[in-house]
Specification:
Helices cover 70% and strands 4% of the residues. With 380 residues, the chain is mainly alpha-helical. α9 (186-205) packs parallel to α12.
Amino acid sequence: MLYKTIWQLLKANKVNLVIGVVITLVITFFYTQSIDIGNTSLQEAKILILSEKTSPIIDGLTDYLKETQTVVTMDEPTQKEIDDALYFQQVGVVLYLPDDFTEKVSSGQMPTIESQSRPDAFSETVVTQQVTTFLQTYVVFSQEMSAEEALEKTKAVLAEQGDLVLSPAYQQRMGRLLSGMTFNLLAYGLFMSIFSGFGVVNLAFNRKAISNRNQVAPVAKRKLHGNITLALIGYSFLLTIGFSGLVLGLTRALFCVATLWHLLNVLVFLVTMVAFSSCVTAIIKNSEAIGGISNIFIMGCCFIGGVFVPSELLPDIVNKIAAFTPTYWFIQNNLLIAQSQSFRGAFNETFLQQSGILLAFAAVFVVIQLVMSKDKANLR
């Protein structure tokens, strides 16, 4: 009878569940369609070259990159404008040429060029290699001839180009990064659905009339609460299976060993989501407050944690604030999995450390709930 009642309450919450499923489905589908893993050609990169000075060498490098890439321009952009351009995909890779760029190249040295790119800008490696190839070729010729002749010779030699084909290892890396981004979306859809379910059920059973009736019921209060919690944990686990299956179905072409680590990360995050949902909905008795946490807090954590906006594009202060939320560490584990070539040694150490932080969040939520429950019992 109890489980039937909980089921009816959860059915009444189906709108929030459907919203979470639809949002996850739509965004995941968009991500999976944004990159064709089976395509063996590399898409052009949108490159922004920033330099305080101009010179024939810089112009030559720019012309060389234009042959295979798209070079965009911005008039004295601020860092915020650059970050916005990266986020809205107006720029894929930013190259920062140092002030002594021309002097170093002219003297036969390789300058240090800093770069910034979108996390999913898979052509950054190719662009960096092209820049290195151009500069190394120019340096070799500049030792035997004048600067003007060396530049012309470099252009002539590098004009002979073949077709660029992606290696299987490069495609695998691209697939892991895309898979990691899709698993990040579970931090919103799955978290919101689990929290909403806890909120609906706990608000119903915490109503004064229902609570008074349960006080005189033949079932012990602790046992009743235990059965409710067990039912909600089962509900959360089934949701996790469903949402994970949805992601796996849409990214089935990307399945690899990294996928298993992503699933393990989801299970660790599930513990934290359940602990948080149980704690908050047990303390807060107001439906508007529960709705506010679902719509504002959870979504806010996703924004600053790196779900919708990559953490690399966010200011350091935002990342420091995000570190106090479990969502941030779930995303960091996904990034670690996606960017790792080997799943041993340093990877295991970092993964366990970040998973331990997630479980520490869960432990804190459990302790808070136990303390608050004990205080309420003493007041009675």
